[in-house]
């Protein structure tokens, strides 16, 4: 079988295309001003836009007692949220949590930067709950579940870091 020679221009174009493909795969495009987003297995894509979405007030979002965090992370290993009883809400938070009759407590996934302060907002929309964390661009994240009082039952949970 005879090998056919290709014109030099064709080889150059193919070599250039291959180099561009490698650059794209390696992520060598425009530099990202914000730097790489911190990674954690619980972080998801942002929810679809919803004009009716509201940020829940602080009295509906309760951070966990530090000594209860590992227990809550284990509870959320397979599910992004779990409905819990008012007594379990108080157990996880480490103090009495008053749950209004029209609300239900949920243990919900969220993340936080390790050893740094962050701002957590929980947004309720038609799509579900969105745990939105504003944190430094660099650094590791850890699971930081919260107890959220809402109604109706969330359809989905979104966890993002900004």
Number of distinct helices: 3
Sheet with the most strands, sense and barrel status: 4 strands, mixed
> Could you report the average pLDDT, rounded to the nearest whole number?
82
Terminal Cα separation, in Å? Answer: 59 Å
> Structural class of the secondary structure composition?
alpha+beta
Strand order of the largest sheet: 1-6-7-10
**Uncertain regions spanning at least 5 consecutive residues:** 6-35
Rg measurement, Å? 23 Å
Query: Which descriptor suits the 3D outline?
Result: globular
The total strand number stands at 10
Helix content: 10-25%
Strand content: 25-35%
Helix-strand topology string: HEEHEHEEEEEEE
List keywords for this structure.
alpha+beta; 21% helix; 162 residues; 3 helices; 27% strand; four-stranded mixed sheet; four-stranded antiparallel sheet
């Amino acid at each position: 079988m005879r090998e056919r020679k290709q014109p030099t221009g064709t080889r150059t174009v193919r070599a250039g295309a291959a180099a561009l493909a490698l650059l794209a795969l390696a992520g060598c495009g425009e530099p990202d001003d914000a730097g790489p987003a911190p990674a954690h297995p619980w972080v998801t894509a942002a929810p679809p836009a919803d004009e009716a979405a509201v940020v829940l007030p602080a009295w509906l979002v309760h951070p966990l007692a530090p000594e209860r965090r590992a227990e809550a992370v284990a509870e959320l290993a397979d599910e992004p949220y779990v409905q819990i009883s008012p007594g379990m809400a108080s157990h996880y938070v480490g103090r009495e949590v008053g749950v209004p009759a029209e609300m239900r407590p949920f243990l919900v996934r969220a993340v936080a930067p390790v050893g740094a302060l962050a701002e957590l907002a929980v947004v309720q929309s038609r799509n579900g709950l969105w745990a939105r964390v504003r944190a430094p661009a660099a650094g590791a994240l850890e699971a930081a579940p919260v107890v959220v009082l809402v109604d109706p039952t969330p359809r989905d949970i979104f966890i993002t870091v900004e």
